[in-house]
Amino acid sequence: NLAVDDLNLFPLLYWPIRSDQPDLASGVAERLDAYLRQGGMILFDTGDAATMIPGQTGTGAGEQRLRQLLVGLNLPRLEPMPEDHTLTRSFYLLQDFPGRFTGDTLWVDHGEPSIKDGVSSVIIGSHDWAGAWAVDELGMAAYPVAPGGERQRELSRRFGVNVVMYALTGNYKTDQVHIPALLERLGQ
Questions:
Q1: If you ran DSSP here, which 8-state letter would residue 135 be given?
Q2: For residue 151, which of 94, 105, 89, 107 has the smallest C-alpha distance?
Q3: H/E run at residue 6
Q4: Read out DSSP for 59-118?
Q5: Is 117 exposed, middle or buried (0-12, 13-18, 19+ CB in 10 A)?
Q6: Contact 107, 125 (CB under 8 A)
Q7: Closest C-alpha among 63, 32, 31 to residue 45
Q8: CA dihedral in degrees (41, 34, 117, 99; nearest 10)?
Q9: Which residues pair with 13 in a beta bridge?
Q10: Got the DSSP string for 126-150?
């Protein structure tokens, strides 16, 4: 419950946004701002990639509702996720980030290097990742994924692992390029 629970206990919040998402309760925007400033991360998922015309962005009902909800938040500037973003390699090497659906842009805040080591605190997409991850009581996939079938579901799971690793470890993977220089300094 965003209005009463201690959000700092959760390094990552997955927030599916639907067109009928209720307005934020009083004080929730301030709590979310504090959470993000203190290092928390939110993955917003509008889940409406399947309803949008290919090549069209920003027209889904979930995305429109998300824009309305975020008006009260003090968010950093958002940009399409760069190809070299740490999220592409925080555990698995990924180029795409499908869920039940695929093809839409993944947005991240432009993490300033001097703030939280440049780690993005907001990720926004529309691929319905939880729908791709969901299983029924028999452990079978609860929802179909399209157009890529089970390979797409596996990539969706890998994206989920990357998001959790990124939330827990930040951008340590970008520091890996410095290992040869560090080892040389240590005389090894």
A1: B
A2: 94
A3: none
A4: -SHHHHHHHHHHTTS-PPPEEEPPTT-GGGTSSS--S---SSS--SPPEEE---TTSGGG
A5: middle
A6: yes
A7: 63
A8: 10
A9: 42
A10: -S-HHHHH-B-TTS-BSS--TTTHH
- pLDDT tens digits for the chain (188 residues)? 999 999 999 999 999 998 899 999 999 999 999 999 888 999 999 998 766 555 555 568 898 999 999 888 888 889 999 998 889 988 999 999 999 999 889 999 976 655 666 789 999 999 999 999 999 999 999 999 999 999 999 999 999 999 999 999 876 655 555 567 667 777 75
Cis status of the peptide bond prior to 147, with omega within 30 of 0? yes
Query: Beta partners for 107?
Result: 80, 124
108 close to 85: Cβ distance less than 8 angstroms: yes
Q: What is the pairing mode between strands 41-45 and 107-109? A: unpaired
CB-based contact 161:89 (threshold 8 Å): no
Give yes or no for a contact between 55 and 85, defined as CB atoms under 8 angstroms apart: no
Q: Residue 176 gets which letter from DSSP?
A: G
What burial class does residue 78 get, using C-beta atoms within 10 Å of its C-beta: 0-12 exposed, 13-18 middle, 19+ buried? middle
Q: Which residue has the tokens 């001097």?
A: 114
Residue 66, phi then psi, degrees to nearest 5: -60, -45
pTM of the shown model = 0.85
Token pair belonging to 70: 């975020």
Side-chain-side CA neighbours of residue 58 (13 Å)? 4
